[in-house]
């Protein structure tokens, strides 16, 4: 069956090979690059493979080699509203957002997919390293490049209209294939930084958006240990940059209170949590788990996987996901996603939620 497929082409090697594979499979493919900034010079430059000022040219050249039509879609207003402004607001609220996860959710698989379906396309193909098996997201065979976590926020309808041609191969194999196909992006470096923070200085970016807001750094008993220039510059688990020289033991950020503009620090042992409550649960690979169910969870991109039980319950503001970890985790930050995987191999995505509350293990545990 021939499908009309919109291939999202970032300008990197993964999306180029993904588009080539879909076209070679006989589908009717159109390439599209997303312009995400009204002022491209305010974004990162350099051949990095995601959202730079050069990437649209690389994507167009790849489309020409593949032999597919190519367009650029201006998504800058949606990107600023859904990703950049959300990023700032989340930090202002004391959370630690993942902008790439938010971009996948709101731009690549909501705004783009909605427009694609309206234009008569059957599916959107991307270069993410993840598999789709029986309609569910499954980890890539390349464990180091697996992106199932950042796609765990997708709902079942979005997954149904998505194609991920690269989940069955490694990144080295993708680069080798790109070279065989004559794609100039074969050796293009991967992107790692936040695209809309050109200099990589997240704290400086937030200070420019939110202004400096001096406040106190406290210990667990409420004693003032020092001061900071803005609680938005910190994240749970952070050790460096606290400005507490001379402390006998390492101190870590335990919590951030934006209302009082305080940052509480303490020993690493106080970072341990064994219960997590997530809000806005989404189930793409399972019906909602109404009873505690054995599973695995991942709490950050490329982070450790934990055995756990999870279930959905009705909270005061709507459905909540309750996760109880078999072993404590450290540095769990609100605003991040908790992605739930099956209880067997732990490689199939069941659902996800946004971390809202964590419960620490008692000192005696």
Automatic annotation (TrEMBL):
Region (Interaction with tRNA): 145-147
E.C. code: 2.8.1.13
EC class (word): transferase
Protein origin, superkingdom: Bacteria
Record site feature (Interaction with tRNA), residues: 128, 336
Active site: 103 (nucleophile), 195 (cysteine persulfide intermediate)
UniProt keyword tRNA-binding present: yes
InterPro entries according to UniProt: MnmA-like, MnmA-like_C, MnmA-like_central, MnmA-like_central_sf, Rossmann-like_a/b/a_fold
Residue ranges of every copy of the tRNA-specific 2-thiouridylase MnmA-like central domain listed in the record: 205-266
Family: Belongs to the MnmA/TRMU family.
NCBIfam families: PRK00143.1, trmU
The protein, known as: tRNA-specific 2-thiouridylase MnmA
Organism: Nocardiopsis lambiniae
